[in-house]
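Contributing: when you submit paired examples, paste them exactly as shown. First protein:
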Amino acid sequence: MTKKFIFQPTSLKELADQYDLLVIGSGGTGLTAALQAKELGAKVAILEKMAKIGGNTTRASSGMNAAETNAQLQHGIIDSYQEFYQDTYRGGGRLSNPELLQYFTSHAALSINWLATEGIVLDDLTITGGMKLKRTHRPSSMAPIGGFLVTGLLKKVAEQQIPLFTNVHVDQLLQAADTTVKGALVTLPDGSKKKLTASAVILATGGFGASHKLLQKFRPDLADYQTTNQPGATGDGILLAQAAGSGLVDMDQVQVHPTVQQDTDHAYLIGEAVRGEGAILVTANGQRFVNELDTRKNVTEAINQLPTKSAYLILDSRIREHVKAVDFYDQIGLVKHGETLAELASEIEVPAEKLAATIATWNQQVSQQHDDDFERSTGMDRDISVGPFLAIHIAPAVHYTMGGVRINAKAQVLKENGTPLKGLFAGGEVAGGLHGNNRIGGNSIAETVIFGRQAGLQACKYLTKIKSEIS
């Protein structure tokens, strides 16, 4: 039996005074950036303010979007960077930064390949809202992408002996007189302060979806919404960068995820792959009301127009087989069951005859591959006909902050005037501009890897340049 991998953070006794590169944040972006930089010869340390490693990445469930991959070809899917670009650009209200989006869509397949070389293989596919083709990559086990990715990256971090320190809070970025970033001032668990010097810093701290204060400032209409974010997503990196002279972009663009189970003490995101594999949404009257795989923005608006401002995801046992995350949802008590549709309707208190009619109509549309009611054209590989049948009660919640630190395609943090803030790089949710006014499902994990790699690459290029200038 294979021994379960358990990552042990580095003892704070080993925290040095100086590094080539500091990576702030231990989610997908930070782990990727640190690993890429270490493989290029940099002396790297990862700093995480929380006791738990992984950030919001651990909560991701659907997959990683990419186009023109070998996995797509093996599944008979002919895709292109251009189509990936257009779907994302359209899905974001045509407000994405074209430079960032071009780099993102043209480097996703390369990042899938890079992950494979690290032993993190994503060879199965599903689809998310706003996409026309299956380009959401996930492991063949269909395990939730977040835990799979973080575990795989941590194995490589351990193998490469990259120090990762938890419970270390970064208070301030250290700067030279010309504003060049030269390290960070941190607070250790015992309350003591320590200056860490470094020739470059990468911000990989995530967004501010769990910050009531910042939501109140930039989107007061959402300040009282529940959130899918882990408690550490409070915008620290954005504030650090701003204090150092960074510009900010799109701070009012906050995504509300439409399918979040909120009937327990915690809000649990129900991944888009559930709909991508065939689930539908119904009202308290048992009727469909939206194209379930429209953009998150549009599905959220449709739910919020219902009298209950909530809905039910309906699926069957075959759909469950294609989304392993449902096993977790069930394990923690989020799933209602019925051996028949009538039993499920009774369990969730919707009219049995209306739910049966809705499912019958939907199954016919799946067989014809044409949704007469809401023009859904994806996630129709299987109908809802094999019991037991399942339902999950959902409602919208704050999920992702599209705005953040201003960067360019080299992951360089930019000042208000558009010039780089020397020595400072950023990627992932801490950076703004990529997603426009709506992030497509599967693009966040892609962003962490693509811009995590880019931040690591460009930081190393910067390190090489300053070392050559010194010599």
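Second protein:
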Amino acid sequence: MQRYRCIPVKIITLAAATALLSSCQNPQSENSSQKQFPVVEEHNIITVPAQLGGNNSVENTTTNAFSLPSSAMPLSKRLDFSVGNSFFRNAWVTAPASTTARDGLGPFFNTNACQSCHIKDGRGHLPASPNDNNVSMLVRLSVGASDDPRFSVKNHPTYGEQLQDAAIPGMEPEALLHFEYETHVEYLSDGTAIELRKPIPIIKTTVYEPLDDRLETSVRLAPPMIGLGYLQALTNEQILANADPEDKDKNGISGKANQVWDKDQQASTLGRFGWKAGQPNLKQQNASAFSGDMGLTSNLVTHDDCTAAQTHCNNAVNGGSPEVSDNILNKVTFYTANLAVPKRRNSQASDVINGNKHFQQIGCAECHQPKWEVGEVTDMPWLSNQTIFPFTDLLLHDMGEGLADHRTEFLANGREWRTPPLWGIGLTENVNSEFGFLHDGRARTLTEAILWHGGEAQFSKQQFTTMSEQQRSELIAFLKSL
């Protein structure tokens, strides 16, 4: 007989929820007064061109805006891109199957295709209703920080590092998952009321042991895939040049680099991919997603997320060893490195130009660094020597109690998140009408996303709340132009 136990995760973090409500009701609790950015003079405002992705930018505003190859890629490489696209887009199946190149799904999984999470290569979304599926998001699990540099956390002994709420035929999933929401209202200085929501995962365990108070969770949404090859091409030295973990310049911004385990090199190195910069490169990011999201092994990640306690999972038929060949992993990595960044729209409109000034003058660009120079990229020379505008520093920042998940990831603590790139953000809804902003998809609009900023971004958030309606509209128009 199956055992079911429903655990509302919000009970585990009741103290954190109380602190969240307190900080939301009292913005000064984030010490916003100590963050006094110098006003950026108009002649120092960085001009943002139409080609955010340099010579590889594409002009497209349709649902396929995030799915096009780097425009300067030679025709001889388009086949590699198409093959990678096929394995990224099409569904994997259970083993044994006649489709031997893409069998081995599960036994536990969250989705059966990369594209199911990264919808049209864009963002995922939270389920729209209790009956909607959860395929474009997931829940990370842990029971504390790891003191081993090879591991980001201590995995849950029964459920591993990630909750899988789907399973192959003949097996029960690890748990059933749905979401409830905590809401509160924030008021702008002109009296405008904005309702903010926070998703709370409700986990109903099935055949394995019930969850307990050790559990740490973090809801994660699939991010957009554009421009990743450029971000991989930036050198460690470039990224570290912007780090200021001790805030020596006293501007309230103390970005720090994550140090993560590189499985190929068997050494710690700088992290740059994932919501907490927990992965060092695209190949490992993809291999980890194949394993955690779909239960597929590779030579880089040789196991799926079955634990010793899950004997049925460990004894299930697999699709060979490895299930994802080196050739397939390399083609998918090539594909994810070469999804082009769309060009801006309305870049010469007066409201967009004014919005860019507001964005930089209130300190947003301190973390969302607009401009980078890419040097030589030997394996993909068409990406070489480009000026790009991703609007990220790839560093970790304390974002305050409101966004905290209270879960570490290597050097990232429970309040720290990597600055996400903003290029393409204005086309989010064009690509997928169902979407969410921030790491867990809680924000339904850009205004909501800004109002969730705290910690090092509290000053900028407060400046936004005191803007006139026209100024806020201009800032949002600028973001939508990206």
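If you have annotations for the second protein, write them as plain sentences, like these:
The first helix runs from residue 9 to 12.
The longest strand covers residues 175-187.
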